[in-house]
Amino acid sequence: MVSTRAALLFGPGQDYKIETVELDEPRAGEVLVQMKATGLCHSDEHARTGDMPMPHYPVICGHEGAAEVVAVGEGVTSVAPGDHVAMSFIPSCGVCPPCRSGRAYICDLGAKLFDLGMITDGRVAHRYGDEPVARYSQLGTFSEYQLLAESSVVKVDRDIPWTAVALVSCGVATGFGSVVNRAEVKAGDTVAVLGVGGIGINAVQGAKIAGASRIIAVDPVEFKREQAVRFGATHTFASLDEAIAGVGGLTAGRMCDAVICTFGVMLGNLLEPALTLTAKGGTCVITSVAPMVQAQADVNLFMLAMMNKDVRGCLYGSQSPRVQIPRLLDLYRAGILKIDELVTKTYSLDQVNEGYADLEAGRIVRGALVY
């Protein structure tokens, strides 16, 4: 049994509480890791606000992480003690039909993401006293140590800083991939990014690296618009209405080849303005998380069909994490992809509530817990 300090969420609307949790030793197909850094991603806030109700509380949130392997269970072959790893909030088993077809970002093991038991054998392996503890996306990176399935970790080179490894494991991969993989942006395209938080800022970077000629960042927070320019935005607007009017003028009415929705929360009434920004034959990518009860969206179906527009969902940047994470770290190492600059402020585990208060107030692009 392993004891660890972790930030527990005991119910929606509550603050995190730092408590001691007991973990099993690793069994077959499992790894025990010591967490080194984890990003404060807005997706975890959906668990706290209730937009994404968790099936079980208490839960350890956090899914954007970097760690060192401490021990491995029987049959683990991809990592060994001492290896550095990035977390993968979508596991990849390598044998299901999506994995075999190169789409590990929708691996069938994703059906177990919010199970209380381990991915490997279903047992409860995390406890707070006598109470079972869940983990967000089967990860729970807001913890000093964590027991994970081998399918949830990706080995990375040891020379990469911990915070860079952590951010690539979710925010960078998701935002970058939304543009490059899902929207398939090409050199010369016009791209709009709606919401410039930790995901959106990396969509801006993806558009720049892909060679977009115009990159429009839309966010009501002035600080985030300023940061978007640092990362490659050519134009910024404070609202969707301003963007629709401004982009029309910039493009002689043609609008954007790609529109990436990275709002803090995706709501149904935001889709039609996003489609208004989308050009004929263009692509609108929905990356934002919506409340689970959001079952309707505003869409002019006549214009959608007659203008030949695409609406695409996007999970994890639409590329296998075992492919995407090393590639992005290579771009970082080459100085092409900015990651260090994403971290506005670092926090300790005990400051997790302070970090999310800063995120909610728009004072940071990305915060990171450093252990």
From TrEMBL:
One of its GO terms (cellular component) is cytosol. Keywords: Metal-binding, NAD, Oxidoreductase, Zinc. Its EC number is 1.1.99.36. The keyword NAD applies. SMART domains: PKS_ER. Residues 13-369 form the Enoyl reductase (ER) domain. GO terms for molecular function: S-(hydroxymethyl)glutathione dehydrogenase [NAD(P)+] activity; zinc ion binding. One of its GO terms (biological process) is formaldehyde catabolic process. Signal peptide: none annotated. Belongs to the zinc-containing alcohol dehydrogenase family. This is NDMA-dependent alcohol dehydrogenase. It comes from Frankia nepalensis.
